[in-house]
Specification:
13 helices
């Protein structure tokens, strides 16, 4: 039996014990009188123990998450374990779908960017909250924000998480993810170098090319050459090269490329697609092209 198997077995044993303890607690609660329903422990039980017993959840969740979901699973498992009541009711169960994978990856990497400058701005939280509510609805958005608040309390290994995302997410989804991360960095009205630096690290670890990173960076941080950077060409490109670059970029960033993530993400991708069109129109205006 190798080390990983031993660790998994130990975690499962702890998990089984915790489930048994929780069921016993529910049973005891059902038989208590009304006076014992205000979180007072049953007779003979040390109040300190009763308080600590609920603390197992986050460690169990984190252990199981790491065993079965890698670094992202560990972070989410820890967050779910901390949200004890939601976990018990099943409200926060993770669903292994492309949409779910994108949302969970977005959740963890958003926290990494928000923490990059050592402070989480209210404007950043408002931006993320508005996005999740808009894209996933009020109920699901509220759950994701609650998870985000738990994730923000944890240390995030950007390299491990980003490598995992890069291994399992297609290129178009990764580009959409990066686009959203830049939106977070811009939420407070300026781009903190540490936040931009973390996004660049994330791109490198995910396998996003430097040209693609520069392209999305130019959509948000505009300089005199921003339109050329978006299309991943130089200012010396010929008119025919510009048209070819636009066709290729429009194809790569088309909202249909992320249609498998759901209509809401597809609608969000339209903003990125429009910026490609804006860059092309800006170049045509500069050059007097029809």
């Amino acid at each position: 039996m190798n080390l990983v198997t031993i660790i998994v077995v130990i975690v499962l044993v702890i998990f089984a014990y915790a489930i048994f303890s929780m069921r016993k607690k529910v049973s005891d609660t059902d038989t208590d009188t009304q006076s014992n329903r205000d979180k007072t422990p049953p007779p003979g039980v040390d109040p300190r123990f009763a308080k600590k017993r609920g603390g197992y959840g986050k460690w169990i969740g984190g252990g199981l998450g790491w065993a079965f979901g890698g670094p992202i699973g560990a972070i989410l498992g820890f967050a779910l374990g901390s949200m004890f009541e939601g976990m018990s009711s099943g409200q926060y169960a993770y669903r292994g779908t492309p949409r779910g994978d994108f949302a969970m990856s977005l959740l963890v990497l958003s926290a990494a960017v928000m923490k990059a400058d050592q402070k989480v701005m209210r404007s950043e939280l408002d931006y993320v909250r508005a996005f999740f509510y808009r894209q996933f609805g009020d109920t699901e958005g509220a759950r994701l924000i609650q998870m985000l608040n738990e994730i923000l309390k944890q240390h995030i290994n950007v390299q491990e998480v980003s490598v995992q995302v890069g291994q399992f997410m297609d290129d178009s989804s990764k580009l959409q993810l990066v686009h959203f991360l830049f939106g977070i960095a811009a939420a407070d009205g300026h781009y903190h170098p540490d936040e931009v630096g973390v996004i660049e690290q994330i791109c490198g670890y995910m396998g996003v090319t430097h040209a693609d990173y520069q392209s999305i960076h130019a959509m948000f941080v505009k300089d005199p050459h921003w339109a050329y950077d978006v299309l991943e060409i130089t200012k010396n490109a010929t008119d025919s090269e510009i048209k070819k670059a636009y066709r290729e970029m429009a194809k790569r960033h088309h909202p249909d490329k992320v249609g498998h993530l759901g209509d809401d993400i597809k609608r969000a991708a339209t903003e990125k697609f429009q910026k490609v069109n804006m860059a092309y129109e800006e170049i045509k205006k500069q050059r007097g092209l029809p």
